[in-house]
Amino acid sequence: MPPLRASPTFARFSLVTYTSPFLLLFVAGIGLALAWRRFDFAPLIGCLPLGIVLLVLAALKLVPAGWVVPLFYVSAILTVVGTLGAERRFVGRGLPLFGQIGDASYSIYLSHTLVLIPLVTVLRKLLLQGWAQFLVASTIAVVVCAVIGIWIYRLVERPMLKAMRRRFDRPVAKRPTPEIATAQSGV
User: Fold this and answer.
1) What is the mean pLDDT of residues 86-93?
2) 64: three-class secondary structure by DSSP
3) Is the predicted pLDDT of residue 159 greater than 90, yes or no?
4) Is pLDDT of 151 > 70?
5) Rounded to 5 degrees, what are φ and ψ at 175?
6) Long-range Cβ contacts of 47-50 (<8 Å, 24+ apart)
């Protein structure tokens, strides 16, 4: 039997996956999640409009060509930081819809590509062109992906999480500390 080796396809896939700059966004997200527990992001709310402005500048290519892609990454991080600041600053004043989108974010993430594939085929038939087509198609895509993601969350993810919690979140019996165990044994 020949020795097991990684296929060239798998090697290329791994190289592309683990050297992708998108991985930096994932790492930045982990760092922000850790910082969220320790720091007050409310003063950083200004990062939200700054991130949006940088995103628009990059999307419209109003910056030098070499800056476009890095600016997308920077704008994504700034937008998340600013959103975290807004969440801290406006605690309790949020819109219920945003809470639902937040709860369903993982379902939205997992399903959006499967939703977009047929949706893009339909949206290409819109009798619009240029920015009008982009704005209408983007708005429809965001709404449809959010609605289907929330639906999947309610019908699949939330019931599954409840079942897993019932099954695995059982109270652990308290073990006696060494002092209590010694006192109980009479030694």
Assistant:
1) 77
2) coil
3) yes
4) yes
5) -90, 140
6) 47/78, 47/79, 47/81, 47/82, 47/85, 48/78, 48/79, 48/81, 48/82, 48/83, 48/85, 48/86, 49/82, 50/78, 50/82
pLDDT of 71: 92
Amino acid at 73: Y
Residue 186 above 70 pLDDT?
no
Q: Is the pTM of this model over 0.70?
A: no
Q: Which of 85, 77, 79, 141 is nearest to 114 (CA)?
A: 141
The CA dihedral of 52, 55, 59, 61, to the nearest 10 degrees, is 110
Whether the per-residue pLDDT at 1 is higher than 50: the answer is no
Burial class (CB in 10 A: 0-12, 13-18, 19+), 84: buried
Which residues make Cβ contacts (< 8 Å) with residue 26, sequence separation at least 6? none
Top mean-pLDDT range of 11-15, 102-106, 172-176: 102-106
Helix, coil or strand: residue 35: helix
Sign of the alpha-carbon dihedral angle for 99, 160, 113, 32: positive
